[in-house]
Amino acid sequence: MTDETAIAFELPHVRAAATSGPLPLDRISVRDYVQEVEIGAFHSERGVNQRIRFNVVLEVAAHVAAQDDDVDKVISYDTITDAIAAELSAERIKLLETLAERVAERVLADRRAIRIFVRIEKLDRIPGALGVEIVRVRPDAQTPQIGRAPATTSPDADLQPRIVVLEAAALQDPTQAIAAARAPGAPTILCVPPIGDMPDGLDEIAHRNIVLLQMEQAAWLLASGQDGVTVFDSFTELDWALKQGLLCIWAPSRLVLDAGDPPSDLSTSALARWLAATIGASEF
What value does the CA radius of gyration of the chain take, rounded to a whole number of Å? Predict the structure, then answer.
């Protein structure tokens, strides 16, 4: 029989394992994640920052991402840390209970999430730590069978990225092209044309793959040596990069070839429109 008194003071990953059902779920965790913020209901806690520590375990639907080694098929650790950051920045919070509930609610909005353990502790109020822990289950969650988890298909809606299509001439002066494409405060994605000559006599599959690879070559050429610029090939990486304020250049092969209904037109403008529609870009 589980010793509930002992388990009560264990970290969330131990509690999750101790309370799992006959078909244990996969888990991701963020441990000993410390942030310094103003929080608390007492007058002595106003106007001063204090350290709070998060330990979070998220149980998720089983998936086949490991077989594919595909980052877009798993819930990223950023889902947890971004939820924490969003709630801490939304407003000043008095109670750890409120913060824990809001973090849990935000993370469980992902339909791949099943159950979450959130422990939050204040580190500066007493010699040890004081805190709260909650366990929440997504209301419509069911224990899933192993299968293909739905992939992330767009960055955070709050980011509203704009997409800029560059002409081939822009690749002659990458520094100037990057400077011209930047828009302060506006998350930006660049789509670049292919570079190099296309051999004659190619079949459709070879032609498609070479065009996409030439676009990737152009993306890396443009990004080389540029500060604040990154090349992305997955939605998860795009979401992270936009949140870091990076200018993003699309390497399209992976997303296009893995798409359920890939675009037939491989021109740069057509692919850019497809990406814009897929992620809900604010401007094209």
Answer: 23
State the Cα angle at 17 between 13 and 21, rounded to 5°: 140
CATH code of the domain made up of 4-137: 3.30.1130.10
Q: Please check whether residue 64 is in contact with residue 70, taking contact to mean a CB–CB distance below 8 angstroms.
A: no
Strands 162-165 and 188-191: parallel
Two tokens, residue 124: 């500066």
In tens, the pLDDT along 247-262 reads: 999 999 988 987 877 8
Domains of the chain, by residue range, sit at: 4-137, 157-279
What predicted TM-score, i.e. pTM, was given to this entire model? 0.60
Rounded Cα distance between 25 and 21, Å, is 8
- Residue 211 φ/ψ, nearest 5 degrees: -60, -45
Ramachandran bin of 40, using left for φ above 0, alpha for ψ from -120 to 50, beta for the remaining angles: left
pLDDT tens sequence across 261-278: 788 899 999 999 999 988
